[in-house]
Specification:
221 residues; mainly beta; Porin; eight-stranded antiparallel β-barrel; elongated
Length: 221
């Protein structure tokens, strides 16, 4: 399947999830303990893929620069937070491995989050779950095919809250299991790898007017 088609399908699914979250957020209790959020980010880093063809093996390191969107929900109890987050985006990594062209195109993850508030507006958290990476293999004579690799992803980050706006920085390490890519030429290539991503972005709390935050932080009497 064409990687862009696969990405579009996943993006539409993510959009549907965000719409569903927005609908529920419109009825959200402003003095409750949960927050629905959606945002966007830019990222940098690297991806390393290990390719095998028969008895041959090689590896290549790609840029992991790109960006994407994220959505999730958090619950808070006093100084502690736990939640769920999903993200999806595009990168532009490309490299020759085993004499053929390897492309890394889209990425996604679904993760749990656990954190603590060092200050009422400053969160430090750890995160972990499933990571996905789209890879396309193209031979010199033209045959190509795509494969989605998946595995574990983990990392951590920090958030600064100001009203309904959240500024965040995050690091993720993903380890993708092996998979085979079969081309129309009849050749089969094995591929696995890992990636590092450093992200900066912004999120917005949906269906939330900031009243609860201000009461909690002592800004409203």
């Amino acid at each position: 399947m064409n990687p862009m088609t696969t990405f579009v399908r996943r993006a539409l699914a993510t959009t549907g999830l965000v719409i569903a979250m927005t609908a529920s957020a419109s009825a959200q209790n402003y003095e409750g303990t949960h927050t629905v959020r959606v945002g966007a980010f830019l990222q940098g880093g690297s991806t390393t893929l290990d390719g095998t063809f028969g008895a041959l093996s090689d590896s290549g390191t790609f840029g992991n620069n790109g960006g994407g969107v994220a959505a999730g929900i958090d619950w808070r109890h006093e100084h502690f937070m736990w939640g769920i987050e999903g993200d999806i985006g595009l990168t532009n990594g490309q490299r020759s491995v085993l004499g053929v062209k390897y492309d890394t195109d889209y990425f996604a993850s679904l993760r749990g989050r656990l954190g603590v508030y060092a200050r009422p507006d400053w969160l430090i958290y750890a995160t972990g779950g499933l990571g996905f990476r789209g890879v396309t293999v193209t031979e010199p004579l033209g045959p190509s095919n795509s494969r989605t690799l998946y595995g574990g992803t983990f990392g951590g980050g920090t958030e600064f809250h100001r009203g309904n706006t959240i500024l965040f920085a995050e690091y993720l390490r993903s380890q993708y299991g092996s998979g085979d890519v079969l081309l129309s030429s009849g050749n089969s290539y094995g591929v696995k790898g890992h990636s590092d991503a450093f992200r900066l972005g912004v999120k917005f709390k949906l269906g939330f007017d900031g009243y609860y935050d201000e009461v909690r932080d002592g800004l409203r009497k």
